[in-house]
Amino acid sequence: MSNSNSSSNGDSESFDKNWRDRHETNYLHWTREEPVNQIQLAFRMHWHTFNNILKQQTGKSLEVGCGRGSLSAYFSDYGWDCTLLDLSSAAINRAEKAFTENDLVAKFDVGDCLSLPYEDNTFDLTFSIGLLEHFDNYDKVIAEQVRVLSPGGMFIGYIVPSMPENIQKDFEWINDILKVVSSEEEVKKSEEKTEIYRSDVLSPPYIESMKNAGLVNCNSDGTYPLPMISHSTSFPFSLLPDEAEISIVKHFTDLLNYNSQDGADPWRCKEGYGQAFLVWGVKPKKNKDTI
Hints:
8 strands; disordered N terminus
């Protein structure tokens, strides 16, 4: 995240305050077992989709604005040489503790996404989950990740803009009921957070920025075609009781299995329909990659 205190440019103080104050930040949404809640299922599906895009077994990866590092946990577990970076020391401490507790190996750095502390051409993959939408000027954020990519390496951005008309709108009535039946203390605790700027744009301006930074073979697609069922879908959406989460995961898994019968990736969907969208591109090798 940026060192700037401007809410439209990535408010570092607000990010750090949320990471220090919210109990949900202790969750690591990675598991070797079957997912038992909605967020674990989401990150398992993120991992499968990233793998489908990458078509690469291992390499050196950098997660920028890593938070607790749930997706990097998958990369680490599958043998990638992982580096995690966040401007929030609280987030990095959470991530390092979670990795140690789960016997996962990675490097952890506190640093600014606008000035990455790495040499050019260092990583085979740079990616972020829920970072770019917090900047109204994300050109430098993208350019820095492209700079540290090795030729032939890939940049992937998972972007979660404000999309009031996505799949979530058809399920808000369920979440409204959950707010009523949940305790007032629980709802209040889950919704107390420092507000952070979030954009409402889809992929075209990000693709343009990626091309300007030198990436080729740039693409985008919608992702996360499921609702979030919770009394609070704030940062991050608060989990329901274990039995409810397991039931929801079973239903969602059946739905995803049905949607993958034709061989398609069930986690990808029309952009603007799902909870997020993906953008990705490749740093060209000289005289080999084409636009």
